[in-house]
Amino acid sequence: MNKRRGFLVIGMLLSLAACRGQAPQALGTLEWDRVTLPAPASERIVRIDVREGQQVAAGAPLMQLELTYAQSQLAALQGQAAQSTAALSELHNGPRSEDIAQARAALGAAQAQAREAQAYYARLQPLGTRQLVAASELDRARAAAQSAQADAGRAEAALAELLHGSRIEQVAQGEAALASAQANVSAQAVLLGKLALVAPRAGRVDSLPYKLGDQPAQGSPLAVLLVGEAPYARVYLPQALRNRLQVGDALQVQLQGDAATQVYPGRIRMIRSEPVFTPYFALTGQDAERLSYLAEISLGKEAATLPVGAPLKVLDDGRR
């Protein structure tokens, strides 16, 4: 029994030694560049024009969101822009001749009342000197004359304001209000156009998370497209390989479990400078070999038919 246990322990040690002696491997998956189309607004899906896995051209319709609310908002903003346009035109044209005539008439009436009040006060002054009228009556006459004179001055200022027309600052404010209203109309028109979802690039529909009649929240992914002429390999390089590889190096990848052992040439297009797992400062000695660095390897068109997400490995000849 003890002999059998000893053989078992020796076998385990040999297995561990063999594992430690294995060459480092870079494993990963096959991926495509993805384009995600978010919902521009929380509107109900009223039409879906594609299916998952379908190849689409740039500009091809994907789905349609409900337009009713966005169209009513656009109409309201267009009304505000028209109102701002009319207000600016009024500022440029200045007051109407009828308003000026009304202001002149008001000034004439105010001046007539001022003359009448001043004359009445002038007639009371000698009587007040001889104390033939009460002092309070004389004070009221003087106050009425001063008030009528002030009303005449106010009417004269109102007429002058109409004759001078709009101020430069008022015109500038009107122009700014019109520009803001027109910008709001343009923004709403752009949003209305986005409710008809189209493919920004040629590609293959990978995912349609929502169904006909759903009302996704704003920003939710409505469609995911796989774009580009060829896929790429997303792999994790161990520390030993990371030290020998750099962007631009040529490599070969192979699907794991591929009985035909077909290999696909590629070229490294990106290597992260930071490890994706345990930070380097927490490792010492042989533990540093556990570090892994995310890398992307561009593949050729011969890999375009491979399934997305297929596991693969990097073939390294060890000569670097």
From TrEMBL:
Signal peptide feature range: 1-23
Entry annotated with the keyword Coiled coil: yes
Subcellular location: Cell envelope
Entry-linked InterPro entries: HH_YbhG-like (IPR059052), UPF0194_transport (IPR050465)
Cited Pfam families: HH_YBHG (PF25881)
Keyword rRNA-binding part of the UniProt annotation: no
Annotated YbhG-like alpha-helical hairpin domain residues: 71-186
Keyword vocabulary terms for this entry: Coiled coil, Signal
Origin superkingdom: Bacteria
Protein name: HlyD family efflux transporter periplasmic adaptor subunit
Organism: Stenotrophomonas capsici
